[in-house]
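Hey,
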Amino acid sequence: MFNAEHNCTTLNKNQVTNEDHFPWDHPRFRSWIAVARACQLMQQTVTREIAHLDIKPPHLDILINLYRFDGISQQELARKLLVGRSNMSMLLPQLEKRGLILRRGDEKDKRVLRLSLTQEGRNLTEAAMEIHTALIEKLLDDEPLEDCMVVTRSMERLIGILLKEEDELA
């Protein structure tokens, strides 16, 4: 079981000494690697579980965001997904060709393209979200909700720090 108070205290006591000179000797590095590996393995599992829907995780990310934010612009979507325009310009036509999304010009600014799901796209997204949600429930069913929320808060804090640094570099 994950005990945040105990683990954070332990991490602070075990910080880098002169003898700890390899990254893997640092407790926070090991923690980061564990998060990265879990993310990678989850991505592989999701890929396998949604393969029969003939979509991949990048498509699913787009579809879920369009499900949540109907009429979002391509630029806003790219920003939410932390990807460049080139990624969007490659993935969106694939989804459009399959009849899953619609792209239409903004009424006020014709340079802006607005994105929406078709009914077929909506149905596919709902099926994929059901699979994804069931997978998360299966994997985290034995974890106390409080522990899950500790991880959530830590990752959201980290995301905030990284996005702020990204903005400062832009």
